[in-house]
Amino acid sequence: MTKIREFVSVFRSSKKPDTYLxxxxxxxxxxxxxxxxxxxxxxxxxxxxxxxxxRKLARAKAGQVLxxxxxxxxxxxxxxxxxxxxxxxxxxxxxxxx
Length: 98
Hints:
By secondary structure, the chain is an alpha+beta fold. The protein is built from three helices and four strands; from the N terminus they run ββαβαβα. The protein has helices at 34-40, 62-72, 81-97, and strands at residues 6-13, 20-24, 43-51, 75-77. The longest helix is centred in the C-terminal third of the chain and has 17 residues, at 81-97.
């Protein structure tokens, strides 16, 4: 039985807070869909990791991430709706401090 493993790079969005993109390590940015690149903005490297279905991730199931990478070449992790209020509040506070 072959164990599913993928060397993955994780990028955070320069446009959207708490938004991350998982791709195979070495993925060419221009090969991803134009709409995704426009929404995501400039990718900021967050980390590289070896992903297996058993690996614990903070907000996504590793198996779903691996399946999306296999099928679409990427997995887009957006903030959970309940967390958006917190994100918006933090952004409001940051804006007031400046």
